[in-house]
Amino acid sequence: MNCRLGLYEKSMPDSLSWREKLVSSQEAGFDWLEMSIDESDARLSRLEWDKFERKELVNLCREVGFYINTICLSGHRKYPIGSAQPPIEARGMQIMEQAIELAYDLGVRIIQLAGYDVYYNEESTPGTKERFLENLWKSARMAASRGVILALETMENDFMNTIEKAMHYVNTINSPYLQVYPDIGNVTNATQHVARDIRSGKGHIAAAHLKETKPGIFRNLHFGEGRVDFKMAANVLKAQDVAMFTAEFWYDGGSNWKEILKSSHDFLRPYLK
User: pTM above 0.90?
Assistant: First the structure.
């Protein structure tokens, strides 16, 4: 099985052009780029691109020979689809619909969804969980009409920090267009039984984030600084025919970011062979 390794867009400086991001990812050895659509106005504005802007990016990918295969849609942290506030819920669903259309136009296969019913200023309740489930079902139907897979990310809070918890929603909605895209670093912080948790998603894991963590720390670690067992996780995932993996880490402001891209690639690639 030919496993592929993608790169998270936010591992590079925001100031780079799309060409520079594509070329830098390719030169570091990665196989595709994961676009980030987070809660910032700058990245949410990508959902408003017109047909020309979308076609321009597709043509650039073809010219470079390096593609955007996945989208990390974390904008729902600010606009969660389980929100009890109707304007926020409505904006969350608008973001979902726009992201599906953007993915369709760009040829993106998978949209990773943040596994939150609510996030910033609201408390998770039976009502927010029910609203999240209902809107997730609506979202899966929208995705089905475009042939785009939505996949739930395991997060850092109790609502959905394991694959087993994500599978509750996958099994309940029971759509081929709703799967799981776990963050192995978050799973490692959530349970002592990582392999068992990965196996709970068998047949439903579309891709996996490879991220370094250690207890209480969920981001901004370099590979090798944490406690994630990448060899074990990769082997269990590969045994379930998972073949798409994404290196998730963040640009730290340094001038040696290209070296970090390359060293991160070289750290992870052997586990996928």
Answer: yes
